[in-house]
Specification:
With 473 residues, this protein is α+β, with helices and mostly antiparallel strands. Among the domains are: 264-423, no CATH class; 438-468, no CATH class. 25% of the residues lie in helices and 44% in strands. The chain has helices spanning 2-43, 46-60, 106-109, 316-324, 384-393, 425-448, 456-468, and strands at residues 64-66, 70-72, 75-83, 91-101, 111-114, 117-126, 153-156, 159-166, 176-186, 191-196, 199-201, 209-220, 223-233, 238-246, 252-269, 276-290, 293-303, 306-307, 332-333, 336-344, 347-357, 361-370, 373-383, 401-403, 406-415, 420-422. The chain has a 22-stranded mixed β-sheet that branches. The protein has a two-stranded parallel sheet with strand order 5-7. A two-stranded antiparallel ribbon has the order 18-19. A hairpin with a 3-residue loop joins β21 (347-357) and β22. α4 runs parallel beside α6 (425-448) and α6 packs antiparallel against α7 (456-468). The longest helix has 42 residues, at 2-43. The chain is rod-shaped and about 135 Å long.
Length: 473
């Protein structure tokens, strides 16, 4: 009897367990079907959007918001993340066309993992209010975990930016960039980056706007280490740079710049003595950045340099060409044209200047530029016979000293870069005027056929000739 009762009892329990298992299976299937829908709805909802905005704002040291997220499984797209107007922080961010994938372990380990993020356009500008970003997580009740702390960490594999722009400003020293592609690989200790293409805007007049070839480096807070930078001028010259930079109220920087066949600023140089169209090669070592500007030393050599008198022959070389009649002074190549220079805030000291067209002209000396003011001393040498001719025309005032086959004249420079002056020009112009008057006297003498006769024409000729003595031979 007992065995007959136990049998049905055991069978009933199996039916009950089987029913529970079936219900549980149905629940699992339902949950399996509904959970992804719920997760996607939550990830695309306002709460996740708010939490993600807080996390990224903290990472970028700003205050900003994402536009709504569009999810497809674990891939996500949002039109933009943008700093709020007037947000604190060093930079204001405007990030467009953001696409990425999120690790499916998001809900298990509470770590946001982005293997790769692609950005259509990233625009930066210096912050209006550079004060430190305050804590962005909302206040919570005692004992409760803030909802923003649902993520313990944010991990990013790499970020690809297809169009990077940085607006120049006073805080960036006039530097800016546009149309650059970037690859960034962040980590806890350092952030590596590589840039290519695009254009760099600089505050340096001799550098201007340049095309970026490639740049590589890393960022270790607060220092930017530039491993290599290569740019190309629109005129064809190339420039390379390396060094390190620490931003701040008084930036810290050191590094090295070298350039090859770069166009001379304004096309020509010469500070009123002559004009030299050329390109230049050289280097500059940046030692430090003081309040007011950089400090360093450099060297420069002119390439394909040509000596020219200048427009209207108003330069020293133009006047010398008129006085001597030497055609080479109207244009000839320079075999040597180089200088070393030192830079301090507000001061350019160009020393050890050497420019030479062998057998015709040689110039050595130094020039200082303080603000716009110009000063300096140049030893200008002319080929011996040409120098002696000028010496005779100036009554022995100029080119009286002989050195190494040249007749040499010291020239003092003054004025400004836009309006340079020197103490030789008045003497040469005086000689040019006397030569012109003497020539008029000779023409008048031949025209009247008089040789010191007592008539009025002869007396006029004698007066003109007596003013300056006999013409030089």
């Amino acid at each position: 009897m007992n065995q007959q009762k136990q049998g049905p009892s055991k069978g009933g329990r199996w039916w009950i367990l089987g029913g529970l298992a079936a219900v549980l299976f149905v629940l699992v299937v339902v949950m399996g079907a509904l959970l992804p829908i719920w997760v996607v709805q939550w990830l695309g909802g306002k709460e996740f959007q708010r939490l993600a905005s807080l996390q990224v704002s903290s990472l970028l040291q700003t205050e900003g918001d994402f536009e709504p997220f569009v999810w497809d499984s674990f891939s996500v797209y949002t039109p933009s993340f943008q700093s709020r107007p007037g947000a604190p922080g060093p930079c204001l961010w405007n990030i467009r066309e953001i696409r990425t994938e999120v690790s499916p372990r998001l809900l298990l380990d509470r770590i946001l993992r982005f293997p790769e993020i692609t950005i259509g356009k990233l625009s930066l500008q210096t912050g209006i209010n550079p004060s430190p970003v305050r804590e962005l997580t909302p206040p919570s009740t005692s004992g409760a975990v803030p909802s923003a702390e649902i993520f313990r960490d944010v991990q990013i594999g790499k970020v690809e930016v297809r169009d990077f722009q940085f607006a120049p400003s006073l805080k960036t020293g006039g530097w800016g960039a546009g149309g650059i592609t970037a690859l960034i690989q962040p980590s806890k200790q350092t952030t590596s980056f590589s840039l290519a293409q695009g254009e760099i805007q600089t505050p340096l007049s001799w550098l201007g706007r340049v095309n970026l070839v490639e740049a590589k480096g890393r960022y270790v807070d607060p220092t930017i280490f530039l491993t290599s930078l290569s740019v190309k001028a629109k005129s064809g010259g190339t420039l390379e740079m390396s060094g390190e930079f620490v931003p701040g109220a008084v930036p810290q920087a050191k590094g090295r710049i070298s350039w090859d066949k770069w166009a001379v600023p304004s096309g020509k140089i010469g500070v009123g003595l002559f004009e030299i169209p050329a390109s230049m090669s050289g280097d500059f070592v940046l030692q430090e950045w003081r309040k007011g500007g950089p400090v360093g030393n450099g060297r420069v050599q002119l390439v394909d340099a040509r000596l020219e008198p200048g427009r209207g022959s108003e330069t020293i070389l133009g006047i010398l060409g008129l006085l001597t009649g030497e055609p080479r002074l109207r244009g000839c190549p320079l075999t040597t044209a180089k200088a070393s220079w030192a830079l301090q805030p507000g001061l350019y000291d160009v020393n050890q200047i050497i420019a030479e067209a062998p057998g015709l002209l040689r110039a050595v000396g130094q020039i200082q530029v303080r603000g716009e003011s110009l000063s300096g001393r140049i030893e200008l040498g002319l080929e011996g016979d040409l120098g002696r001719k000028v010496n005779a025309l100036t009554g022995g005032e100029c080119f009286a000293r002989s050195e190494n086959g040249y007749s040499v004249q010291s020239i003092q420079l003054s004025g400004t870069l836009s309006s340079p002056k020197n103490d030789l020009e008045p003497k040469l112009k005086g000689a040019l005027e006397r030569t012109a008057i003497r020539t008029v006297a000779q023409i008048l003498e031949k025209a009247t056929g008089t040789q010191g006769s007592g008539d009025a024409a002869g007396q006029a000729v004698n007066v003109l000739k007596s003013l300056f003595g006999p013409a030089p031979k």
